[in-house]
Every structure is written in C-alpha cells, then in structure tokens.
Design a protein that fits this description.
This protein is α+β, with helices and mostly antiparallel strands. It folds into 2 domains: 276 residues, no CATH class; 122 residues, Conserved hypothetical protein from pyrococcus furiosus pfu- 392566-001, domain 2. It is 32% helix and 27% strand. It contains 12 helices and 20 strands. Strands 1, 2, 4, 5, 6, 8, 9, 10, 11 and 12 form a 10-stranded mixed sheet that branches. Strands 13, 14, 15, 16, 17 and 18 form a 6-stranded antiparallel sheet that branches. Strand 14 and strand 15 form a beta hairpin. It is globular and about 60 Å long. The model has no long low-confidence stretch (mean pLDDT 94).
C-alpha cells in the first residue's frame, strides 16, 4: 500500500496543432462578478477547441442545467475525434508558471481520494484549508459524474522547506521531455511543462514519503479548488460501493489530478479575498459589526486589519488575531437576518473598488493571512473560515490544460 496517497497517471494533452493559448482557460471559480472577462474569453476563443467548452465557469452557474449536457458532449467529441492524446503514459508533469509574482514551479500528480476528507475535525492526510460549503458541491459533482475525463484546477500545497520534491526536478528541466511552452490568455503569464518519467518518478515518491514521515498527519493542504476536489470525492463515494474490492483499488475515479505547489515558493503569494455585500445599508451594517466585535471582546479600535468602504465612506478596524474568523461569523449571521442582502467574494482590490462603484455595494477587505502559519494552524485548529486567502491574483490561478480519463 502506498501510504503517501501519491500515484502516477496517464496524462492527456491536445494533439499537435491545437492553439494552446486558446485551449487553456483559467479556473472556473475566478472572475465570478466580472462577466465581461468571460465574454472576452468567448470572443478570443471563437470556434477553436478550448477547455471553455468542457468546464463550467461559475459566472454561468445558474445555467448549469443547460450547460452540463453540452460539456459532456464536447468531452466525448474531443475524445472521439482524437483531440486528446496521451502525453505521459505513466508519470507526472513538471509545470513552470511565470506570473507577475515570479516563477512558480509545480508538479501535476494523481492523489488518492480515499485519503482526503473535508469533514470538520478530520485528520486525513489530505485536508482542505478552509470550510467546505456543501451546497456548492452538487453542481461540480454533476459535471464529474457524467464526464469521461477530468481537467484539474486544484492547487495542492506541500510544506517542503528543504525544497526536496519539486525544485530538484526544475534543476533538471533541460534533460526532461518538453510537453508545452506558451503564453496564457488574459494576462495569465507563461507556462511550460515537461514529462516526469522513469527513475525520476521513484525519486519523487521517495521525497514525498520522507515528508510524510515528519508531517504530523497533514501532508497535503488544498490551496485552490477544494470544492472541485470535494465533488470528485463525492462521485467516488457514490461509485465505490458498486465495485469489487479488486476494481475499487485501481479504478481511475478513485484518484484526482492536482498540481502540487511548495508552500515555501517565493512566488506563491497569499492574497486576501475581499467581500462585497449587496443590497445592504452599509452604515448600519458597520455599526452592527463594531457592536459585535465589542461583544466578543475584540474591538481594538481603528486600524487596517479590516477596511470597509462604500462610494462615500470608509471604516477601519484593528484586530489582535487574524480578523476573518469573527468577520465571517458576523457576515453569515447578518445575511441570515437580512435575506434581501447578498455577498460575493472578490479577488483583487481594484476589482472590488470597481464593483463598489458600479453596483453601490459595500466592500470589505481583511488583511492577508500569513502563509507560514498555515499548516500549524490547520493541525491545531482545523480549517480556516472559507475564503480566507487566495494564492495570488485571479489571473495567476491554475489554467485548465491537462486531462485524465476517469471512466
């Protein structure tokens, strides 16, 4: 039994001749409040083959019933037409992503969903970093349940201060078989990829196993894409009991493609995720928030730990601890008491300020979470409040590119 949950995979890429700049599209949960972004993607892609046709950007989540059958049909069309071809027979993919934050290496691998659990208090080897909203899982599960392939946007963190897993491969990149090298659309930077095969696979397994032996029970923390990973696990649980033990051990749906990223990478920047509250009396809401903090013994006066603003006013709050636990608890309660109000989670201060001006919303900006505290926090306290941090700006997220058969 492999105790570190790591597996190789047969990894698919589009056949030669496909324009990868039009093929690769950013993760579905980005730019949800900016339909103009996705309209620009539609116009750029045109009729070209693209992952835009085989994923569901959440800006169109309310159209899921009509879009999911088309997604499955496009997947089958791409498979039957030979668009997807085997790029790596059994191995990994070394990824090098260049963004405004720097060079971020990663390793595309397959992980065992049997060793992932998003249940609060779970002590599994693979855990989420923030709370899982169960209601967000079914639409993603419906896509995966009828899909012949998966396309990953999950970024999985490992805490590897010695740089023993991914970085040694990057030093050998010139000796590896190249897979792709192109510019990503919509200011996504540049991405390169190489096949990791043969003896290098064993070296990766050995390095990950050494991390596992000293990980305190937490080896992998989901940085991005937790709800997609939760959907993959739910689909596996639904299927598992129908299989014999022998088939269950090797069935492709038991595993999920993810990109491993070292928490200690300098280009991995934790950005705060902002809140935009709509249809609310901003001044009254802020008064309630200040009273709530005082009742919790957490009213520290004016500071920059939480900055809130509408078109005409700004409010500032100081906090002794990271402010998001109390802020999110307050907002959840406020929204439950004010059904006319709604909330969205926004990546990037510029996007939030533009949204506030356009829609007369209340913008709320908590300070960033220190990534050095992440693994120790989860081991001690469990998951963070949802939407605590974002790993980089929206256009630095993982783009859909590689695929794997799951049926």
């Amino acid at each position: 039994m492999i105790t570190n949950a790591l597996r190789t995979a047969e990894i698919l890429l589009p056949r030669p001749g496909i324009d990868l700049s039009k093929w690769a599209v950013v993760a579905c949960d980005q730019f949800t409040a900016q339909p103009e972004y996705w309209q620009a993607v539609e116009e750029y892609v045109g009729d070209a083959p693209s992952t835009l046709r085989v994923t569901l950007p959440e800006v169109w989540l309310n159209e899921a019933d009509s879009r999911i059958p088309a997604i499955h049909a496009a997947m089958r069309e791409y498979l039957d037409g030979g668009l997807w071809q085997t790029a790596v027979k059994q191995g990994f993919v070394l990824v090098c992503r260049e963004t405004e934050s720097g060079v971020r290496p990663g390793l595309l691998v397959s992980l065992d969903l049997e060793q992932y659990d998003f249940t609060p208090g779970a002590e599994s080897l693979i855990r989420p970093t923030e709370g899982t909203v169960v209601s967000r899982v079914p639409p993603r599960a419906r896509i995966r349940a009828g899909a012949p392939v998966e396309l990953p946007h999950v970024m999985m963190l490992i805490d590897d201060p010695g740089r023993t897993v991914i970085e040694p491969l990057l030093e050998k990149a010139d000796t590896l078989r190249p897979l792709y090298d192109f510019a990503l659309m919509q200011h996504g930077g540049h991405v390169r990829g190489w096949a990791v095969e043969g003896r290098l696979v064993d070296e990766v397994h050995d390095a990950v196993e050494a991390l596992r032996e000293n990980c305190g029970g937490l080896l992998y923390a989901v940085g991005d894409g937790n709800h997609s990973l939760a959907a993959a696990r739910q689909c596996w649980l639904d299927l598992r009991e129908k299989l014999s033990p022998a088939v269950r051990a090797v069935h492709p749906a038991r595993f999920a493609l993810v990109e491993l990223v070292n928490l200690n990478c300098p280009a991995l920047v934790f950005e705060p995720i902002h809140r935009a509250v709509f249809n609310a009396d901003a001044e009254a809401l802020m008064c309630e928030y200040q009273s709530y903090l005082a009742a919790q013994g957490a009213d520290m006066g004016e500071g920059d730990d939480v900055v809130a603003f509408d078109r005409t006013h700004t409010w500032r709050f100081k906090s002794e601890q990271h402010p998001l636990r109390l802020l999110q608890a307050f907002l959840d309660d406020y929204l439950a008491r004010h059904p006319e109000a709604s909330i969205d989670y926004i990546h990037g201060e510029d996007a939030l300020r533009a949204l506030v001006q356009r829609d007369n919303a209340l913008g709320i900006m908590p300070r960033a979470f220190d990534k050095a505290e992440l693994f120790s926090y989860i081991r001690r306290w469990g998951v963070l409040p949802r939407k605590t941090f974002s790993m980089g700006e929206a256009n630095e997220k993982r783009y859909y590119l590689e695929a794997r058969r799951i049926l």
